[in-house]
């Protein structure tokens, strides 16, 4: 059986035009897929306790190619993006990653995962 690759298409010229606000996380298990021109961030108005979540988490074997996206975890606890286990990763180009909490990472990559990063800016401020 052959499975297709899921894709998320936003505005490749300005990702801030297509915004996905999450209180949880995107948990990617797929063996292939792509994301282009999307801003993923935490809600600006939060009440109560903030759960510990990454914005995007790739499981072992999860492959996702990303182009021209913004990940903003500002105001939350956890890594912004994490890639875990053997076979996880993808090609990520023209990303802006912001808002990892204290003692966490903007992009956390397990030693057995592989990412090809091109023109990626990471900011904790």
Compact overview of the structure:
The chain is mostly beta strands and 125 residues long. It is 0% helix and 43% strand.
Topology:
Elements: E1 6-9, E2 19-21, E3 26-28, E4 33-36, E5 39-41, E6 56-58, E7 65-72, E8 81-83, E9 89-98, E10 107-109, E11 114-123
Parallel strand pairs: 1-4, 2-5, 3-6, 4-7, 5-7, 6-8, 7-9, 8-10, 9-11
Mean pLDDT: 87
Tell me how many strands there are.
Answer: 11
- The gross shape turns out to be globular
Give the end-to-end Cα distance, rounded to a whole number of Å: 46 Å
The major beta sheet can be summarized as: 7 strands, parallel
Q: What is the helix/strand order?
A: EEEEEEEEEEE
Measured by DSSP, the beta-strand proportion falls in: 35-45%
The Rg value, from CA coordinates, equals 14 Å
Weakly predicted, low-confidence segments:
none
Helix fraction? Answer: under 10%
């Amino acid at each position: 059986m052959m499975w297709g690759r899921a894709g998320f298409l936003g505005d490749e010229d300005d990702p801030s035009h297509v915004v996905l606000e999450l209180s949880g996380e995107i948990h990617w298990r797929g063996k292939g897929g792509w994301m282009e021109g999307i801003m993923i961030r935490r809600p600006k108005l939060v009440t109560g306790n903030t759960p510990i979540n990454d914005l995007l988490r790739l499981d072992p074997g999860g492959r996702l190619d990303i182009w021209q996206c913004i990940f903003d975890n500002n105001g939350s606890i956890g890594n912004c993006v994490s890639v875990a286990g053997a076979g996880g990763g993808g090609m990520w180009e023209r990303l802006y990653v912001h808002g990892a909490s204290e003692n966490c990472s903007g992009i956390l990559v397990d030693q057995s995962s592989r990412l090809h990063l091109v023109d990626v800016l990471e900011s904790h401020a």
